[in-house]
Design brief:
Elements: H1 3-125, H2 131-139, H3 142-173, E1 182-184, H4 186-196, H5 198-201, E2 211-215, E3 222-224, H6 226-247, H7 253-258, E4 262-270, E5 273-280, H8 287-290, H9 310-321, E6 325-330, E7 336-343
Parallel strand pairs: 2-4
Antiparallel strand pairs: 1-3, 4-5, 5-7, 6-7
Length: 346
């Protein structure tokens, strides 16, 4: 083998060596890239696992919250049922003495009129009864007593009628007939609820009276569970009052008086269903809040002022128990309205 052949072999080996080095470098780069990819994948996997664990923890918490809310709902249902029976019983017991008073007040009024008539006749026939009797007449201010006594009896009669109306409203509101559907006057249920909430509607030192505007249509009786439906009216109306009181914050008495707090109640029949709309002229809600108001445990009220169960129960009663629907519309500055739709027959 001559020198030229050796040089050729060396050059060939050097060339192959360079190619081999490049392959090695390329393989090393690829290895580094793979290692980097593996590290990235590992980080991604760790992140995914962490997110899954966080999500699982969130789901477990929501599950616990839902279970607690369900337990609260069951407990509240039992309490409302017991309270309804108690209130109905108390109202029934009130009616007994009220009936006794009302039954005796009319003959008592007749007796008083007869006695006053007899005294008047006596004064006409004997204008000079004697000094002792005249002094007694003056001491008891007989002329005032004669005028005021009949007014007093009239006031007692009005008081008895008011107590009777309250008692009847309590009996209507607290009806516990949960076993079966019965025909019910929707307007009677609303009016009974308003009477029970009257103390919250009255004027106070902070605001004038909350006005109630009724626009009642002629409605047929609706087959429903009256006690549960009255609870719906109570929840919606109480929320409207809360919303108005919230909107009054920062306003003076005169400012509220210039634009009075108002709750509007409308009823109408549409084909085979009854529509009840209850609206207020409070400050309204943002859409993000409106979408969540029927969620269990969600509340916009301060700590200790709301459980977030009232409207959740309301929707359950309307939709699950009565086959109806409950919708809410609201805009900031334009108040809130709840629309309840109930089928006439289930």
């Amino acid at each position: 083998m001559d020198l030229n052949d050796n040089e050729k072999i060396n050059k060939q080996l050097e060339k192959e060596n360079r190619i081999l080095k490049k392959k090695i470098e390329r393989l090393q780069e690829e290895r580094k890239t793979l290692e980097k990819i593996n590290r990235n994948k590992e980080e991604v996997f760790k992140k995914i696992i962490q997110e899954l664990q966080d999500h699982q923890a969130t789901l477990e918490k929501k599950s616990r919250d839902l279970k607690e809310a369900f337990d609260d709902l069951k407990m509240m249902e039992n309490k409302m049922s017991s309270l309804g029976g108690l209130v109905a019983g108390v109202a029934h017991e009130i009616n007994n003495p009220i009936g006794f008073l009302a039954g005796n007040l009319k003959p008592a009024e007749d007796y008083v009129r007869d006695l006053l008539g007899l005294i008047s006749l006596y004064q006409d026939k004997f204008p000079n009864p004697g000094e002792e009797i005249e002094e007694e007449i003056e001491a008891i201010d007989f002329d005032f007593v004669r005028k005021d006594l009949l007014k007093l009896l009239t006031s007692m009669k009005e008081g008895i009628n008011r107590i009777r109306n309250i008692s009847n409203s309590l009996r209507t509101f607290a009806r516990t007939d949960i076993e079966r559907l019965i025909p019910f006057d929707i307007h009677e249920g609303i009016d009974s609820t308003l009477l029970i909430l009257k103390h919250r509607l009255k004027a106070n030192e902070d605001r004038p009276v909350i006005e109630i505007l009724k626009q009642y249509d002629d409605l047929p009786l609706v087959k429903c569970f009256p006690g549960q439906l009255n609870q719906v009216f109570m929840n919606v109306l109480a929320n409207a009052i809360d919303a108005l009181e919230e909107s009054n914050k920062g306003k003076s008495y005169a400012q509220i008086e210039a634009n009075p707090n108002r709750i509007t109640i409308q009823t109408q029949q549409e084909e085979n269903c009854v529509i009840i709309r209850i609206g207020d002229n409070g400050k309204g809600m943002f859409e993000a809040v409106r979408r969540r108001i029927f969620e269990q445990t969600f509340t916009t009220k301060g700590v200790g002022k709301g459980t977030g169960l009232g409207l959740a129960i309301t929707r359950k009663i309307i939709e699950e128990k009565h086959g109806g629907s409950l919708h809410c519309t609201s805009e900031p500055g334009n108040g809130t309205e709840f629309a309840i739709s109930l089928p006439l027959e289930m």
